[in-house]
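hey so i finally got around to running the thing on that chain from the lab meeting. sorry it took forever, my laptop kept dying and i had to restart like 3 times. anyway pasting the input first so we r on the same page abt which one it is
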Amino acid sequence: MPKHNNKHIILFNYGGGMRGLVPAHIMSRMEEVTGLRMADMVDTFCGPSTGSILNAALNIPKEDAPYRPKFRARHMVRFYERDGIKIFPRDRFRDFRGFIHDFNNRTMKIGQLDSLFKHGHYDPINLKRALRALYGDTKLNQSLKNLIIPVYNIDGDQLTVVSEAGETQEAPVHTKNNFIDEGGHAVWLKKMTLPRNQKATPDVSIFDAVTASCAAPTYFPCHHFEARHQDRHHKIEYSGIDGSIFDNPCISYHGAIKQHIPEDTTPLMIVLGTGYDLKSIKKEDWNRYGGLGVVDPVNDLPLIKILFHASESALVDSFRQEMGSHLFVLNKSMLSSESEAMSSMPSPQIDDASPENLKKLEHFAYSIIEENQHIFDHICHLLVQNRDKGMRGKHNWLRTLRRKYFFK
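ok and heres what got predicted. didnt touch it at all, straight out
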C-alpha cells in the first residue's frame, strides 16, 4: 500500500451481542488515555450487530451542542451493564423451545406449538426500548462522522435488476452485472462525507438501521423498516437481519469504504474484537450431528458459526497483506488455554448478561489491552495525531475565512 501524508482512520467493531462490552471497555480505556472521544479521533465507523450499536451511539450529537458527541465509550459500558439483562433475560428453556419449534415445523405442524414456543426468539421490545433510548429519532445523516451500518435484507422483492440498452426479456444481455435474482442481499446503510464517489445518505433512522443489524438469527425476529434513497422515487422496504451474516473487516473495507478513500490518502484500520470462539470440529462429530444437529444450540450452533466466519477466513490473509502495517487488531480467543482456567474466561454465548459474565468480559477486555500494550499505545498515538490533524484543518479553514471577509 503506498504511503501518503494524509491518513484516514477506520474503526471496525465486531458483532457478538453482550460481548460488545469488550470493545466498549477497550474504547473507554482509549478515551481515558487520550482525553478525547472516539468521534473526535476516528474518521469512519463500521461493523455489524452489537458493533453497530456502539458505532452509532458514539456518533449521536448532543441536543445542545450538535457538533459534539452525546456519549462517551464509558456510557456504552453502562448501557450493556444496565440494559443487557433486560434485552437477554435469563431463560434456561429458550434454546429448548427454539429446538422444539424447529422440530414442529419440520414434522408435526401443530399450530398451537408455534404460538406456545414463540419461535425461540427473545422479545424484541426490550432491545427496541433500549435502542430508542439511545438514539431517539436521530437520522443516519445526522451522524457526526462517517458511519456504515450493514444489514442483510432477506426480502429481495425490491431488488433492482441491472439491464443494458436493447435488452429484452426474451434476449437478455449476459454480463457480470446482469443479476436476475429475487433472493436476499447485503445492504450498506451509510453516511459518507468523503469527496470521492460520494453518494447521498439514505433517509433512514439510526434506530431502524441498528435494530435490523442486530436481529441475530435464532435470537431476534427480523426488523422491517423503510428507507428513502434520493435516486429512487419511492421508499424501499427492508426486512433486515444481522449484518454479521456477511460483514467483517475485509468485506467492510472492500465493499463499503475503499471506493470512497481519496487516492492521496492512506487508510488505517483499527479492529476491535469481541473474542474468537470458533472451535474446530472432528469429522466424526460433524457426521454425527446430522441435518438438525448442525444448527442445534446444544452443539453450539456449529453451522451458523462457520457461516459467520467462513468469508473472513478466506479473505483475511490477502487483506493483511494489502493493509500491511496499517492494520491494527485487538482481539483474542475466548477458548481457554492451559494458561487460562476455564472458570476465568467469559461465556462465548452472546446472550449471557449475568453479573458474573459481565465482570469476566471486563477482565477479558483488559487482558487484550495488557497482552497488546505496545499496539494499544501506538493506536492511541495515531488517534491523537488524527484528531490534531483535523483541528489543524479546521483552524486553517477559519484563518482563511477571516482573511477573506475581515482583512481585505
